Amino acid sequence: MEEGSCWPLSDSSALLGALGDGSLDDELSEIIDTINVRTATIAYERTQAALARLALHDRVRIGSRVKPQYLRGETGTVHGFDEGVVIVLLDRVVGKFTSRHARCAPEMVEPIHER
Q1: How far apart are the first and last CA of the chain?
Q2: Number of folded domains in the chain?
Q3: What is this structure's pTM?
């Protein structure tokens, strides 16, 4: 550990305080890079978990956080997967989706458990 360093920090409040008062300015670029890598890893893991819940031909509902908003709550069937994106064949034509195919982030698609 370098002399004068505040590491190891015991909690997030200490880290935020050290960032706020400039104590970590020399390490700021490295901290930003680490945060960016960690954020990307978390996003990737969420995408993979969402994809794992879905299978071809599953019935799904478009979630409440999707954009454009007029897709929210629409239902359809998983028609395919393409580079981490779910292709949903919507039950009806909605807005600009005249082919009824919507490409969605897997986190925006919720499986419908039909009885």
Answers
A1: 59
A2: 2
A3: 0.71
